[in-house]
């Protein structure tokens, strides 16, 4: 039997988009998955929409108190039983072959972590508004300090090889901290040079407001990596420059 995959999803006020996300998981060619959705006390009808689906692989838990995306992801991770951990936010999409392709790659290449290309799309039309993000480099702790090439929608890791990695709940850059902690343990993460996912670029997305999170990124290095002030400023400057380049090449 194929190894179980645990899909980790936080949801919060996702009613507008979550049915598309659900359908993209149900369409996966790799069928041995469990989907741990943790709702962060949504105020819309997100929970009602999820509960319409009777697939026993979909395991919803609703929190009693709003605690943020990192806390919700940790809740799902604690409940996860799969060998492989995959992340999917409640407004993003996978192509049907995503899980099959990524897991096959991990197995054939004896890899602990892999990431793939993904489309960066308008939040309403899901048409590309930037060039696809390309998984074109082997990821290491060293180069991940300067720019976060790993996105939840496009990255899978093997818990049998590395264990589970949780998110710091006191950081607004919790995904970057988690990936850095993981890359301290494994030497490399490998690229899968295929576009297998769609990232919905929300107008109010924190990740797009680069000027507003410079301080949060600085704290990734200063507080969570334990770097000196000078070293933290150096990596923050590199991250800011790479972030500008990542989002500046808009299609004409």
Please explain how this structure is put together.
There is one protein chain. With 252 residues, the chain is of the alpha/beta class. The chain has two domains: 5-204, Spore Coat Polysaccharide Biosynthesis Protein SpsA, Chain A (Alpha-Beta Complex), CATH 3.90.550.10; 210-251. Helix content is 35%, strand content 23%. The protein has nine helices and nine strands. Strands 1, 2, 3, 4, 5, 6, 7, 8 and 9 form a nine-stranded mixed beta sheet that branches. Helix 2 links the parallel strand 2 (33-39) and strand 3 (58-62). Helix 8 (214-224) packs across helix 9. The longest helix is centred in the last third of the chain and has 20 residues, at 229-248. The radius of gyration is 17 Å and the shape is globular. The mean pLDDT is 94.
């Amino acid at each position: 039997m194929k190894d179980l995959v645990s899909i980790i999803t936080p949801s919060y006020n996702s009613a507008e988009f979550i049915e598309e996300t659900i359908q993209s998981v149900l369409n996966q060619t790799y069928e041995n998955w469990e989907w741990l959705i943790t709702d962060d006390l949504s105020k819309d009808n997100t929970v009602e929409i999820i509960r319409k689906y009777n697939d026993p692989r979909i395991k919803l838990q609703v929190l009693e108190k709003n605690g943020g995306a990192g806390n919700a992801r940790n809740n799902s991770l604690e409940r996860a039983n799969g060998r492989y951990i995959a992340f999917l936010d409640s407004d993003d999409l996978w192509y049907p072959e995503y899980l099959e392709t990524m897991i096959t790659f991990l197995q054939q290449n004896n890899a602990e972590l892999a990431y793939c290309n993904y489309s960066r799309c308008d939040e309403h039309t899901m048409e590309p508004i930037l060039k696809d993000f390309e998984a074109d480099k082997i990821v290491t702790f060293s180069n991940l300090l300067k720019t976060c090439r790993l996105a939840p929608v496009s990255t899978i890791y093997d818990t049998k090889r590395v264990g589970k990695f949780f998110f710091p709940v006191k950081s607004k850059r919790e995904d970057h901290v988690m990936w850095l902690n993981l890359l301290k343990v494994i030497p490399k993460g490998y690229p899968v040079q295929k576009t297998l996912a769609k990232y919905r670029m929300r107008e109010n997305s924190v990740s797009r407001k680069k000027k507003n999170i410079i301080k949060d990124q600085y704290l990734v290095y200063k507080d969570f990596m334990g770097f000196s002030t000078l070293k933290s400023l150096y990596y923050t400057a590199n991250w800011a420059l790479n972030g500008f380049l990542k989002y500046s090449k808009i299609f004409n």
